[in-house]
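User: I'm new to structure prediction. If I give you an amino acid sequence, what do you actually give back? Let's try with this one:
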Amino acid sequence: MPKRDTPPRWDRKMQQRLARGEAAALGELYDRFASLVHGLAHRVLADEQAADRITREVFAHVWQHPDSYDPKQGPLRSWVATLTHRLAVQRLRQTETAALAHGDPDNRHDGDDEDDRGDAPADAYADATGSSAGSSTGSMEELERRVRRASVAARADYIVTSMPAPLRAALELAYFQRRDYRQTAADLGVTEAEARRRLRLGLQLLSTAHDTGAPGAPPEYGGAV
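Assistant: Good question. You get back a string of structure tokens that encode the predicted 3D arrangement of the chain. For your 225 residues, that looks like this:
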């Protein structure tokens, strides 16, 4: 087992190349992580244009501040995901707070471009009860609930895509294709006991989406590593 303070070779080399200003390194990093970054941002914001902006911001930050990543603290993938999550949640708070300030909680906009305001999509995290502005205290509480739901959903997505392939395959069969553990075992070509073990471990990992302080996890991504 490698020591935790010995980062993967690719991560170290990538950080060094970015620090030297190699544009090709940024291209490789983008090719590897762009879908992850965009997917997490979209999961939080439910807005294609906003997710595109967050994606650009993440890679701009990596390019401009390569030394902000410390390979000894964990994988580059986890660091990029944490950065994405933080920027997306900040954007969600900004747009939701601005909408509340204007008394229009059901018409939220991305605040970067004035020209985009007329075309902003409806908020995907609208209050399930149908309430509108209400009291300022109630509105802020609802904002925090929306941010929390978006954060947990994004962490869950990250956990699923990061977990070992055998666990992910078992979860996908059981929960997306509605297989029971016997059918899952048959589809995967493993014993029923092994199928139950994989499902149990996968669910244990997934449950940490609600835990932002799991030991060894990157900030704001409990259990995601």
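You can read the tokens as a compact description of the fold. Here is one thing that stands out. The two ends are 16 Å apart (CA to CA).
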